[in-house]
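#onboarding

Welcome to the new folks! Below is a worked example of what a typical request in this channel looks like: someone posts a single protein sequence, and someone else replies with the predicted structure as tokens. Don't worry about understanding the tokens yet, we'll cover that in week two.

Example request:
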Amino acid sequence: MKGFKEQDMPYFSLLSDGISTRDFLDETIRGLVFSDEKNAFYVADLGDVVQKHARWLEHLPLVSPFYAVKCNDELPVLRALAAMGAGFDCASKNEMALVLGLGVPAERIIYANPCKQVSHIKYAARHGVHTMTFDNEAELEKVARNHPHARLVLRIMADDSKAVCRLSVKFGASLKSCRHLLERARQLGVDVIGVSFHVGSGCMEAETFALAIADARCVFDMAVDFGYCLSLLDIGGGFPGSPDAKVTFEEIAGVLNGALERYFPAESGVRVIAEPGRFYVASAFMLAVGIIAKKAVVQNSLDNEEASRDDQPAYMYYVNDGVYGSFNCILFDHANVLPLAHRKVDLDEPLFETSVWGPTCDGLDCVLECVQLPELHLGDWLIFQHMGAYTLAAASTFNGFQKPVVHYVMSSEDRLLMQELLSGMEEVVLGPCLQSSCGDKLGLPPTHLPPGVNA
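Example response:
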């Protein structure tokens, strides 16, 4: 990016050489030893986000990423992606306002919600957000009345049977209905510019993308019959963000590149975008939760009686974040979370049947029903990795429990990588929020800086 300056960087603490994200987390926990406020917290590595962007550019160079804001709307994440030139997939007026407030041009936003509230459509029209999706006739008529200059993208149904979270039950037009929708759009004088699909969140079969691209090609050809020359293909999301995914990003990219070359080669002039969310942020966030209460019970006891001295106990640990907070991903995103004991565990130390519970007064607030852990004590910590996707964004303050603080870090190597990525970009106009590196101006909580870490 021409004219890039240090203050254009998002807010983070620069890690000294040899200091890892886990080191930062360990020092943060040690810094809380004498505090009564031992609240759950995140350590988020913005360098991981930068590395993901580099991987995207390497493996999908012809596909422009439009980050799905709904996945994680933390300001430092959005600022980093905005600075690196990413576009944004917004689902509501508030998400559009958030991104526009960062100085991102409206042209780098797709309003990718096929069923929209009228006031949100009008907001998009007033602020120059013209690209938006639809999948039904009623939506066409609504947009025609409230945003006549919209550039519509027809969302088609994709086979998401191999995905963890299916979306076709709610969104997407069948191929059979597309001809009628295109005809109706022409009657209404609405501009249709492209096709989109989504193979489902957490897609576990790379070939699903190729099948959806082939279907999109059919709709492109169909649109010619109604005088449309479509120019945009949106391949949606579904890209894995954690290293333990059953299908890798590189495998999906290989399938995508082959399918795009076959159905939408570069000489076709069709612009291709995607809506990655968890790919960018899942592995960047690590969550630390503290044990605030503990109960030993008779193993396999149905009546939950207190354990006697001679019984093999099972332990119930109560921690300061739960399913109404960060662990909502268990209910809404079908996430499988794995706890790691923060304290050193000896190899020969016995493991016990363990359940982990959130802090609220609701019996449904169970993080883990059955897991093997060593015996832990009040004040000990559990660590959960890969907690950046669909966690904070959907967390509530039920029972008055606040969302965890996030500490943002980046290594000097990743900062250099970010500068390298920016150096080849054309100038991007930055808004006032991007021009400030001060956390307090963004409403961020103060960051505890462990020894060896510089602001």
